Tol-Pal system protein TolQ
Amino acid sequence: MSQDLSIVQLMLNASWVVQAVVVLLVLVSVISWAAIFRKVFTLKRVNRHNEDFEKEFWSGTNLNDLYSAAAQSARHGGPMERIFASGMREYHKLRERRITDAGALLDGARRAMRASFQREIDVLETNLSFLGTVGSVAPYVGLFGTVWGIMHAFTGLAALAQVTLATVAPGIAEALVATAIGLFAAIPAVVAYNRFATDIDRVANRMETFMEEFSNILHRNLGQQPSQATPSGH
C-alpha cells in the first residue's frame, strides 16, 4: 500500500465521525487488553492460593490452628481460605451463643460460606461483563463508522464530473478501517470472555466442592464430639 493510502493518512483525511469512532475503538481495545492481563494474573494467583490452602487443609492440620492462620492472612490469602474462615467464624459465634443443635450449627456455617463464596465469585467476575460488551458491541460501532464513511465518500463524489477508482478508493478504504479496528477490539474480548468464564466456572466448582467436603467434616465432628466447643480435626 502506498503512503497516500496508509492507515494513518486515511484516518487524517477521514470525516470527524469516522475519526471519533476509531479513537473510541482504540481506547476500548486498550482498556480491554488491560482488563485481560489483569484477569489472567488474578486467576493464576487465585488458583495458586487455593491449591496451597487445599494442601494445608488436607495435610491433617488442626482446624482451629488452620482457622487462626486463615483469620490472620484473610486479606492476603485466597478465596477458598476466606470461605473456610467465614464458615469457622460463624460456627464459633453460634457456639459462643451456646447453640448446641448440630443442624443449626452446620446450617449457620454453610450460610456463611455460601455468602463468602458469592462475594468471591463477584470479585472474580469483575470486568467480565465489560469484555462481553466489547465483544458484542465493538463490531457494530465499527460498522457504524464504515457506513458513515461510505456515505460521506459518496456525497463527496457526487460533486465530481468524472468518478474513477482512484477517487473512490480512499473514501471506501478509510471507512473500512473502522470495521477492521472494531473487529480488532472485539475478537480478543470475545475469546478472553469465553476463556475466563470457563476458568471462573472451574474455580467456582472447586470451591463448592470444598464447601461440601468441609461441611461433611463439620458434620462428622459434631456427631462424634457433641460436647466439644470446636471441631478439632478432620
Remarks:
- Residues 3-224 form one domain.
- The chain has a mean pLDDT of 85.
